[in-house]
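Project channel, design review

CF: Before we commit to the Cellulomonas humilata constructs, I'd like one complete example in the thread so the newer folks can see what an input/output pair looks like. Taking MsnO8 family LLM class oxidoreductase.
RD: sounds good, go ahead.
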Amino acid sequence: MLDTSPVAVGQSSGEALAATTALARAADAAGYARFWVAEHHAMPAVASTSPGVLLAHLAAATDRIRVGSGGVMLPNHPTLVVAEQFAMLEALHPGRIDLGIGRAPGADPMTAAALRRTVEGLGAEDFPAEVIDVLALLGQHLPGRAPSLRATRLSATPSATSTPQVWLLGSSSFSAELAGSLGLPFSYAHHFNTGYTLQAADAYRRAFRPSPVLDAPRLMVSASVLVAGSDDEAHYLAGPSRVMALSLRTGRPLGPIVSPEDAAAELAALDPAAAADFFARVPGTQVATTADRAGEALAALVERTGADELMITGTAYDVATRVHTVEQVAARWPAVAIAA
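CF: and here is what came back for MsnO8 family LLM class oxidoreductase:
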């Protein structure tokens, strides 16, 4: 499960974070393997800005599920800060921490400049070297991949007796190829609807080289999912995600998540032909249907990609819809997976 702590109209950021906590507990109880949180900045619709802080809370609020970042946007942070945050999380919750690393800013240029303090750091050219440094600071050295001199002289504290599981995240072939060449697990953001999922999966496998971390490729793909009692109800509840997708793709300010009623009114006002074309390409929620059909669609995605892990995410106005989706997918997934 991936969650962004979405903030709905009339809701406070604190309430959104409490909803994420409830969702993590539901995923824990339903048997999910991982619960990841995102890093986004200066977005009224998103409360998840500091994954390390939120993960400490979620790990303490759950019993067995792995918690992780989906992801930490590495160009925003000094490598030692990231390594020490996740070394501490691992010391507090050994064997339950994932460090998912991305290279996107997760913010607009002005916010990114404020995060990084200097304009020199706004590019992602140093990303591969910074990933290697984070691994070295956590005590994970890759043969033939020398970290910086500074990283060789330092180590993250608390001193590790175990290490977080490090994943590279991405929505392009760049991160896929980098993850493969470093021998790291890779999570592809299929829920972004870029159209390059199969190409990225192939690029990752072709670039893969065994490492002390992995003997063979390990691929995760994500999908945006919402489950309801009927297709019509699911499409209605997915309306807010369509409004959000429209705002993101047309450059409009991304405000808090509107209600399904307001979303339906806004979508009804669009030109029907233009809207149909847009949402065919950018559906918002990719899988919005009944639980049985959702299970079939997710199993088909796993079969097409050959993914080792599936991560679901979703945008909905209320947490009850998200919890219902988590529980219904879990209830049907094993039988669907075995049948596939």
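RD: helpful, thanks. The radius of gyration is 20 Å.
CF: The first strand starts at residue 2 and ends at 3.
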